[in-house]
Design brief:
Number of helices: 2
Shape: globular
Strand order of the largest sheet: 1-2
Number of strands: 2
Structural class: alpha+beta
Helix content: 25-40%
Oligomer: single chain
Length: 85
C-alpha cells in the first residue's frame, strides 16, 4: 500500500525533478496536455521506463514546460478529468 502524501512532498518532488538535465524515461513534464490517449500512452511508457531502469516509480508532472522546466502552471486536473464512464 502506498502511503498518502501531503502537498509539500509533491512540491519538493517537482523541485527535485526540475533539476534533472532533461526528461528521462521515467520523468515527463506537461503543460495543459489533457488528451486521454496521449496520457495513457505516456503513463505506460513511463512505467516501463522506470521498471527497465530500476526505478521504484515514474512521474508525470503537469504545469512545467518540458524544454526549460519553467513553472508555467496548468488548468488540467487529472483527478477530475474523465473520458467515458
Amino acid at each position: 500500500m502506498i502511503p498518502a502524501r501531503n502537498p509539500e512532498y509533491f512540491a519538493g518532488l517537482a523541485r527535485a525533478l526540475r533539476l534533472l538535465p532533461g526528461e528521462t524515461e521515467w520523468v515527463e513534464f506537461k503543460g495543459n496536455d489533457s488528451n486521454p490517449q496521449t496520457i495513457g500512452r505516456n503513463i505506460s511508457a513511463l512505467a516501463n521506463g522506470a521498471a527497465l531502469n530500476g526505478k521504484a516509480s515514474a512521474s508525470m508532472i503537469w504545469g512545467i514546460e518540458d524544454k526549460t522546466r519553467a513553472v508555467i502552471g496548468t488548468t488540467f486536473s487529472p483527478s477530475t478529468a474523465k473520458k467515458g464512464n
